[in-house]
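Handout, section B. The chain below has 259 residues.
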Amino acid sequence: MKTFIAFFDVLGFKEFIYNNDLTEAKRLFNHLLRDSQTAISGEKYIKINSGMIVPDLKNQKVNCLHVSDSIIFWTNTDSEEDFKELVEVCYSFYWRSLQATFPLRGCLTYGEIDFNPSTIKNDNGIDFYNYSLIGKGLVDAYIKSDNIEYAGCILDELAIEKVSDSLINDLIYDQKICMYKVPYKNGENYEHVFRPIKGDHNDVSFRNTAQSIKGLFTYASKTELTNMPESVKKKMNNTIDFISFFRETDRDLKNPNKK
């Protein structure tokens, strides 16, 4: 089927796995599962006992698949309503992860995918798992996200072309997306990207966020800034440059189409 699909992967995942024991890796990885579940729940929660609140998935409208450090979201149709649902998921997942979990890069696009999961159990208690998601849509999302040189998520033109221009403008007015000169491995290009915040940063909040971004790139991977590979340091600095882009955003931006 042809649908809207978003692919995210974790920057520095190899270092994260090598530099943490399994117990710590599982603890931190559970934060990523929490963020994806929160996003697909529409940021709604349910209390399961007196001391625990978890994302409420009973009204989930976007599919989600975790495979190692890859997180894939997709819709069941290519309607504008499903597109908006996926945008909300990507926006929530991106900003939450950027604040406290892992640096991610991603791409929301449109294309063909196929998913028919199955499990075969034998008499020895051994399982054969098939959770293969295939299709040009997934490949396009992976290739485009893999080329990004900062922790960010782009909204691909293939997806934009499938919805109305007024909807894209509404997303800009709602401060979910914006135009930004995205750094790629082979140059720069203006793209629609997901915003990390609504409103703007003053100098103090920018400083605090920049420090947080540095921590995001070093904490989970247990890598000191002085020992960080130049390729990773470049992505980190590009991410801070992206945050700096919002130091002058108009916090009172109004949509003339809404009362």
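Note. Residues 96 and 211 are 16 Å apart (CA to CA). Compare this with the example in section A.
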